[in-house]
Write a structure and sequence with these properties.
Length: about 220
């Protein structure tokens, strides 16, 4: 199953391509369509973040609301004076997020399956004390840290990673084998873990990556200071 963040990126790129294709054959005015409907991307990103971590709803909720306001304003459903009321309410929402938020504490993965979405923000996730089953990580214009130091794997597991204009750091314990497959476009990945004296039957973490103008690094704890 595709991660919510990966689906949002995929549908957004497909939709944008179709709009410009239809514009090229004079079926639609591509500029007008993009101008009116681009806020749907904000709504989709907010929904994706909410699905990835339902305990962190203030940030995604704010993104959904601002996307809907932009959408209504761009399609003449709301008057121009909506911004007179929106910005003070936005400041109140941001202040409430700071006051009642988790203060940067990393989210704990409860079922051993990773699902993290970081769009225009930084996210941290920790998997510990249980079997790690793999999962998904999506980073767009942000950063994400995944801590697997205390996780356990008995078989090969896979993380499907999509990084666009951002960075993903994966912290693993010693003794794991690490491999990368995928496509780097003006980006890349790096494995700085110790690979000496790792047995052939050691568990393997595979990173299946799409990296565009970004980077992924897999490393040990001391590299994080």
């Amino acid at each position: 199953m595709r991660s919510p963040g990966r689906l949002v990126i995929g549908f957004a790129l497909v939709g944008l391509g179709l709009v410009f294709l239809l514009g090229a054959v004079d079926v639609v005015d591509a500029g007008d369509v993009v101008s009116r409907w681009w806020p749907l991307v904000l709504v989709g990103v907010g929904v994706a973040q909410l699905l990835a971590d339902r305990s962190n709803w203030l940030g995604p909720g704010f993104l959904i609301v601002i996307g809907l306001v932009f959408l209504g304003q761009r399609n003449d459903l709301l008057g121009d004076n909506v911004w007179t009321f929106f910005w003070p309410l936005g400041l109140i929402a941001i202040g409430a997020w700071i006051l009642v938020g988790r203060g940067g504490e990393p989210s704990r993965v409860g079922d051993g399956t990773l699902g993290i979405v970081a769009v225009l923000t930084g996210r941290d996730a920790v998997v510990s004390g249980e079997r790690f089953r793999g999962g998904d990580a999506t980073v767009v214009l942000g950063s994400a840290n995944v801590d697997l130091t205390d996780a356990e794997i008995t078989d090969d597991v896979t993380i499907t990673a999509t990084v666009l204009l951002g960075s993903l750091n994966v912290l693993v314990p010693e003794g794991w084998r690490v491999s990368f497959t995928g496509t780097p476009l003006l980006g890349g990945w790096d494995d700085t873990t110790r690979r000496d004296a790792i047995p052939e039957n050691a568990p393997r973490l595979e990173i299946r990556a799409l990296v565009i103008l970004g980077g992924i690094e897999v490393r040990h704890a001391e590299r994080w200071g």
